[in-house]
Amino acid sequence: MEEDAAEAAAALAARITAIGARTSTTMATYVQGSNGDAVYTNARAMMGRIDAGMFMMIPETMSNMVTGAITMDIDLVNFGSTDGVNSMIGATGRTYAATVPYFNYSAIARTDDEKIFDAAKMSALNFATLTAAGLSPIAALYVASLRTRWAMTGGLKALVSDTSTTDVEHVIVSATDSTYGNLSAAATASDLNTASVAIFEAYLDVVDANPDAGAWVVYHAEAIWSAVEFVFRTRGHHFKTSRSESSSYEAIYKRYLSASFEGTFEWPAALEMFSVFHTAIHPFKIRALAVVTAHYLAHGKLSESAKLRLHSAPCGHAMITTAVAALATMKGEVWWSAFERSFETTIAQVTAYASQINGNRYAYHQAAGLYGIDSATTVLNPKDRSVVSMADAKVQVKFICAACQGLIQALNEAVRNKAIAGFSLSNSQALAKAAGDAPLLTMRISGMIYKSLTMAEDAITLTDLIKTALPEHAAAIQASPVE
Q1: What CA–CA distance (Å, rounded) separates 26 from 3?
Q2: Are residues 285 and 427 in the same domain?
Q3: What phi and psi, each to the nearest 5 degrees, are found at residue 143?
Q4: What's the pLDDT tens digit per position in 77-130?
Q5: 87: nearest Cα among 261, 260, 374, 307
Q6: What pLDDT score does 480 carry?
Q7: Within a domain: residue 483?
Q8: Is the dihedral of CA 421, 424, 425, 426 positive or negative?
Q9: Do 302 and 330 share a domain, yes or no?
Q10: Rounded-to-integer distance, Cα 351 and Cα 71, Å
Q11: What is the C-alpha separation between 49 and 270, in angstroms, rounded?
Q12: In this structure, are 246 and 350 located in the same domain?
């Protein structure tokens, strides 16, 4: 009996020990804090993620070097202001470029041979892990090469200086790593052991088989980086892969890069855009997108079209900023003065609100925290300078937004009927909700504009047309006749 009791006690103790071990590993998720990888956060949902096998690998030697590199002192509130881009093109940018070198990953200048080996080592390391994770050799070649180019030209310094989020998608490979330690620690090719030589050879074989890849990467690296900065700033994601959205993201990247290279841009065969615009750049996080874009701008690496797109409004308030773009299109019409008189107060509001948003682009972004700056959540009413929440601001201007959606609908109808060839806001959905709140106004404005485009077959004057479309504003229209 005593033996049976002892065996039972021992068995119970073993089960208890096993429960302790199992709960430590399987139940840890249940008590994750706010930074846990399984916990939802709005910022992480916007930023997205990549699989751990695709994380960027950073040799410990480069990680040590970048610690002493010159701080890239870019104030994103200033850079995101109305004059921020011009200042980085002008005197401020020249001072910055004279202080912060283009290759900013080491406190001590590296010789060309040293930079070549640094680049080869990081690229080979990333190529090895990416192919092991299932990426094709072609995709791994471009992803590894772009990561290395970006890291050496400021991206790594911007990444390690970013304290806006605790999420990391990179691994610092130490000299003690069982697989890549020798490769990470090597200072020259003569330091490589047999395993590291095999890793290098596998990478260089693919490089040799694709002799144009290196030049393509170097020529396009800054434009690709700034393209992702633009897309995240204006859309809130790097690249979405659902069937309906993937083609939209591909189209916007193609337009951006074609404009950057004056229509001569060509995408490498067999390379998926997602691999570049998401997998390659994602580990650098969001703040680095803006910081390094400013760095490239100061060093004269961005095209004129890229500079223009740096002024584009942040996502989160497209209802307001798109309405102002639509109003700018309307201003060329002969009926504008009557329309402006009818909606004078609201036009002033939406214009002022858009100006404030565009004057602080990163703070008004819906993921401002990922840029490491405080979120701007209010605007000032232009009439009395009162503080207005963004939610109330959108309510104040929803009717003018509905009217602007009428313009978009009319122009889309004109395109379908071949009255016009096309227009810049054709794919905008930002004003659709406002149109849903005031569908009759949207319909009347759309009809009025379309008739004005097709010269109104009933031959009434444009003033009569406007009065018919907007009878509740007849008095204001009468005070500002348009024939």
Answers
A1: 34
A2: no
A3: -65, -50
A4: 999 999 999 999 999 999 999 999 999 999 999 999 999 999 999 999 999 999
A5: 307
A6: 45
A7: no
A8: positive
A9: no
A10: 37
A11: 23
A12: no
